[in-house]
From TrEMBL:
Record-linked NCBIfam families: yfiA
Molecular functions per Gene Ontology: ribosomal small subunit binding
Database matches in Pfam families: Ribosom_S30AE_C (PF16321), Ribosomal_S30AE (PF02482)
Protein's organism: Anaerococcus tetradius
PANTHER family the UniProt entry points to: 30S RIBOSOMAL PROTEIN
Name of this chain's protein: Ribosomal subunit interface protein
Coiled-coil parts of chain: none
Gene Ontology BP terms: negative regulation of translational elongation
Keywords, sorted A to Z: Translation regulation
Length: 204
C-alpha cells in the first residue's frame, strides 16, 4: 500500500515538473544575504518572477539576490542573455514585494527601450520573446548610437582609497586607475546608497 502511494506521489511530482517545462518557465536562482529567505518569501518571490515567463524563453537563467540594508530590502537580478549581453536591475524598498515589482518592471522596461537594438542580428533571440514586448514610444530607440566625445586619460598607480579620494576631488561618479599592488586597471564608483564599489576587469 505504501509503495503504491509512493509511486503515485513520484508520478505526481514528475508530472508537475514536465508541465513546468512545457509551460516554458525560466530557471530562477534565489540567493539571500543578511536575512533568512523563508519558504513563504521564496514561494511568493518565484510566483512574482514567473511573470517574466511571458518575456523570456524557458532555457534562460536568472540570478536573484536578496539583501537587507537598514530597513530596506534590496533585490538584484542578473541574466546573461544569449550572445553574452548582461541584463541587470537593482531595486530597493521597505517592502520586499514592492522591491520585486519594481525590479520586474525595470527589467521589462530596459528590454522594451532597447528592443530594436537587441533584435539586430538576433544575438539575444534565444533568450527573449521579442514579440511579447510592446513598442517603446521613443524615437531615440531607433537612432544610431553616437559617441560624441572620446577622452584619453593618464592612469596612475594608486590604492583604492587614493582613487576614491581623487574621484571625490574631481566630483565624478567613477574613477579609473592602476592598482598599485598588481598594476591592473581598476574602476571605483559611487553607489546610489552613498557608499563605494569597485570594478575589476576579467577576460573570463
Amino acid at each position: 500500500m505504501k509503495k503504491i502511494k509512493r509511486k503515485r506521489l513520484l508520478k505526481l511530482i514528475l508530472g508537475k515538473l514536465i508541465k513546468r517545462q512545457e509551460e516554458g518557465i525560466m530557471k530562477l536562482n534565489l540567493i539571500a544575504k543578511n536575512f533568512t529567505l523563508t519558504n513563504d518569501i521564496r514561494n511568493e518571490s518565484i510566483k512574482k518572477f514567473e511573470r517574466l515567463d511571458k518575456y523570456f524563453h524557458d532555457q534562460q537563467e536568472m540570478d536573484i539576490r536578496f539583501a537587507k540594508e537598514g530597513n530596506d530590502f534590496v533585490v538584484e537580478t542578473t541574466a546573461v542573455l544569449d550572445g553574452g549581453r548582461i541584463l541587470r536591475s537593482e531595486t530597493s524598498d521597505n517592502s520586499y514585494q514592492t522591491a520585486i515589482d519594481k525590479n520586474i518592471d525595470g527589467l521589462v522596461r530596459q528590454v522594451r527601450k532597447n528592443k530594436t537594438k537587441l533584435m539586430k542580428g538576433r544575438q539575444s533571440g534565444a533568450s527573449i520573446k521579442f514579440d511579447n514586448f510592446e513598442a517603446y514610444d521613443d524615437k531615440k530607440d531607433d537612432e544610431k548610437i553616437n559617441i560624441v566625445r572620446t577622452k584619453e586619460i593618464n592612469v596612475k598607480p594608486m590604492s583604492a582609497e587614493e582613487a576614491i579620494l581623487q574621484m571625490e576631488l574631481l566630483d565624478h561618479n567613477f574613477f579609473v586607475y592602476l592598482d598599485s599592488d598588481d598594476m591592473q586597471v581598476r574602476v571605483v564608483y559611487r553607489r546610489r546608497k552613498g557608499d563605494y564599489g569597485q570594478i575589476i576587469p576579467s577576460l573570463d
